[in-house]
Amino acid sequence: MSEPLGVALIGCGTVGGGVAKLLLEHPERLAARAGRPLALRRVVVRDLTKPRATRLSREILTTDLEQVIADPSVQVVAELVGGVEWARQAVLRLLAAGKDVVTANKALLATHGSEVFDAARKHGRAIAFEASVAGGIPIIAALTQSLAGNQILSLQGILNGTSNFILTAMTEQGQSYGEALKEAQARGYAEADPTLDVDGTDAAHKLAILAQIAFGMAVPLSAISRRGIENIDVIDIHFANELGYVIKLLAETWLHEGQVAMHVSPVLLRKHTPLAQVRGAYNAVAVIGDAVEDVLFYGKGAGMMPTASAVVADLIDLAIGRTQRTFQTLRLWSDNGPPLRVQPPASVKTRFYLRLVVDDRPGVLSEVAGILAQHHISIASVIQHEVPDDAEGQRVHLVIMTHSALTGNFRAACDRLDQLTSVASPSVHFPVED
Amino acid sequence: MSEPLGVALIGCGTVGGGVAKLLLEHPERLAARAGRPLALRRVVVRDLTKPRATRLSREILTTDLEQVIADPSVQVVAELVGGVEWARQAVLRLLAAGKDVVTANKALLATHGSEVFDAARKHGRAIAFEASVAGGIPIIAALTQSLAGNQILSLQGILNGTSNFILTAMTEQGQSYGEALKEAQARGYAEADPTLDVDGTDAAHKLAILAQIAFGMAVPLSAISRRGIENIDVIDIHFANELGYVIKLLAETWLHEGQVAMHVSPVLLRKHTPLAQVRGAYNAVAVIGDAVEDVLFYGKGAGMMPTASAVVADLIDLAIGRTQRTFQTLRLWSDNGPPLRVQPPASVKTRFYLRLVVDDRPGVLSEVAGILAQHHISIASVIQHEVPDDAEGQRVHLVIMTHSALTGNFRAACDRLDQLTSVASPSVHFPVED
Lengths: 434, 434
Fold this sequence. Notes:
The structure is a homodimer. The first copy, chain A, has helices at residues 14-25, 27-34, 65-69, 85-96, 106-123, 139-146, 161-173, 177-186, 195-198, 201-215, 234-243, 304-320, 322-330, 364-374, 407-419, and strands spanning 5-10, 38-44, 61-62, 76-79, 100-103, 127-128, 152-158, 225-226, 245-256, 259-270, 282-289, 293-300, 341-342, 349-359, 379-383, 395-402, 405-406, 423-433. Chain A is an alpha/beta fold. In chain A, strand 5 (100-103), helix 5 and strand 6 form a beta-alpha-beta unit. Strand 12 of chain A pairs antiparallel with strand 12 of chain B, so a sheet runs across the interface.
């Protein structure tokens, strides 16, 4: 057995606590898999007195990052704190001090990937980041290694468990967004301030990382069109169901005529498709490669031990020496990717679901259909339910499924529709995938 | 860019042809991912004159394995012929000649894994075998690397696309086994002689490989209890559906009180579970690890390019040098695994579906229930549909779902039931999973 790999953790919250637990409770198992012991040498925390799930000895715990930087017995540091600026500084200093880095920090990679990867290359170190996307699901290994023979054609991910939990509760229990969010918070699936989860930012961070691997593109977050689930009305979930669809928050990117389209958006998916079946706080990523065709990866996208599983896999890969070879070969977040550009969202072609609240009087459908036609949008199906006789003259929901149309044309049509006096409230619309 | 990795293929059928196609049509892509060119130096075939999907130059094609063995410019050989004895000899000779080996040959690994892996270790070579299980799905990489921090608790696989295609057609179109098999053959999903696919042998080969990685056990094939789909009656698929289940051919292994249970069997799965949704010729593997919890991998389990994707991933891993490190560390099919034993099938506890064809007269249900009770099997639910008045006195289907019971007890009860004069034909039964 070779000499131990010295490990330090920065952060001992949910994920850090899980990693410490695995390292301390299963040293023999991990040593067998890694070919040498993984020795936990330091854990950097903010508060030494805070009670922790895993018992850590006083010599290991410290509040001082400098102790890790200065410790020659630490070769790998797992950065598990989250947040961008402090983490960025810490990672840069650790790399400069000759440590390899494991990180679960998607916000850091999505916003400063080039900087930290360049620093790692400059110092001859490696960065591993399996835990940054989809928790325990090994999607980073799949894209960097197992699917390496493929040109990736598309990636579709349910990458935010909070959003998927809320949408599932709205779909299966008919809850409102507010009720479902409260339940998610009560169960620990949503934070007190859920903004970054429900507005699509977290999914966009993860999508930027996946797009980097799949297409070699460093995508600025601002280039990812994104929409969250905060404004989804349960009535649209009902109409989608009637049409044979479910609504999922998808992070998607795909190749189209030499450009890369990408967005985070609620999307209508046919009920029988694999992604449509992903319920609750689970994550899934569906990938199409030109050789492998369609593959799907499914599992817990967050949580203490699933995410710790990914971090420990990275530690084992570093101990064995695989990560260093992958890292040197792939040159992620460098400037040598293919010259791909993000496709302008307006030029993306897709089908749409459109719901309007309209006056229940003759001529309205003709007016709406006319505007859609003027924008080259052809109608595939319409739902307008009969209202009771005594409710005549009131407002009704008009739901239209379009054929494939340019997003730019569709948006322009919606702008016109929203100005009609017979249309009572802003149009609601989502992309549709078959 | 480093010097090329010299590659030879043995076999240029479906999979070999796909590998040749990827290597010849996308050399730049593969060189970028592998850090050096993958140079196709030789392809060993049986018939030089046979037309091939991918154009191969005359200097590359040969019928003579010796040319590969003697060629110092070939460092890696992909064995893609199938069959056991010739492949075994070829692999042993290639390893002895200093070549690393990639293989898609599950029968070879399941029956001679220890011998070929020992030979590789003796000669300082590596064997990669991602394509041997579940085609394009990277389940070998997942188990050997991504889930390496886990103790695997269970594996459930739909590992035979032919069987799953047939069961799906029986379930969704109400076809008989014979009709569904014919359709599978017409579509190229089943061979003219489908025996090894439909009788569970192919799935058992793959299960033996997965159990080796998950539990470090070299399982003799004879220790895997196996049952195929050849005798499934569509009526059981209907009753399963009525009860909320689908029937899938599963290859399963799980840890139970320090022993490893394993079998290949048709199993009743609840409709909403992820594995139950796997349709047609797709494969899927659901894994539970003690840290990652439940993860699932899904994709094409066979076919030209999906399997080629797995072979090429192995070539890239060898080119980068990752496989060699994994291989040396894990010591698969060696004698140093934990001292686990296969759990005797009779001692496995599970729920059962039981269908009897019984005389439609008073006292029969009581007789059947009495025998089950004597064998400590408790009944969870019963279906016996009313027959039309004029059919009274005829035979009816009696379907019983049991609570969890010892397989040994259940089988003993079935033997007794089959001897009853009121039971018309042998009992039909399947394990049930919730």
